[in-house]
Amino acid sequence: xxxxxxxxxxxxxxxxxxxxxxxxxxxxxxxxxxxxxxxxxxxxxxxxxxxxxxxxxxxxxxxxxxxxxxxxxxxxxxxxxxxxxxxxxxxxxxxxxxxxxxxxxxxxxxxxxxxxxxxxxxxxxxxxxxxxxxxxxxxxxxxxxxxxxxxxxxxxxxxxxxxxxxxxxxxxxxxxxxxxxxxxxxxxxxxxxxxxxxxxxxxxxxxxxxxxxxxxxxxxxxxxxxxxxxxxxxxxxxxxxxxxxxxxxxxxxxxxxxxxxxxxxxxxxxxxxxxxxxxxxxx
Length: 283
Fold this sequence. Notes:
alpha/beta
């Protein structure tokens, strides 16, 4: 199986429409090169461009959906199209509804950080609303709602578990994905350069503890003054780095054998020794 991680640069001065077209062209270039293509988190706006979230938010089946569906179909690839700022229908029960307490989103729907996964025919195979929102008491944490559902996608070669950026810091999410059958963990991100060492460390940790492949795709460039880490990375179930990008825009392509997940879990069956989290604690 071959995967291409498109580490697209997000820079001020380029319109969302221009970047959308450029990303679609990069996806089409992977025809005959990759089986799975991955884009980063919030590449249309930039993950730290908080002031643009509301202005650039789009419905699930909006212009990015249409452009990526066509690009996946044209290239004949499975496409994890990264994530978009989604403006959903109003959801009074959403945790942390967009702009709650600040007026943003009231009567206009709720914002989510939503990933889109397309089949080679251009059909939407899955969508995932990011569960863990970054920012503590500002930014994404207050501007966007929290997703509730774990998402896996069955590809012909492997079952993919979907997570996004800050999710990488929460191992219980990935345990849940593994329990749901995930063998390959795909993590689009807009990770800052100042915490790049955490990015690499956590990607390898999630691979080792879950005995799964990790495909972590970040952005290049600068989001609202925040330099991005780049360094997209592919890690095998033993924690070995199979490929790693540099700092700038590039396409990182790697071939790997999904069967290594099952052989690793058979040779070193650590997951079978799990105790905590499998049943309620005794009182």
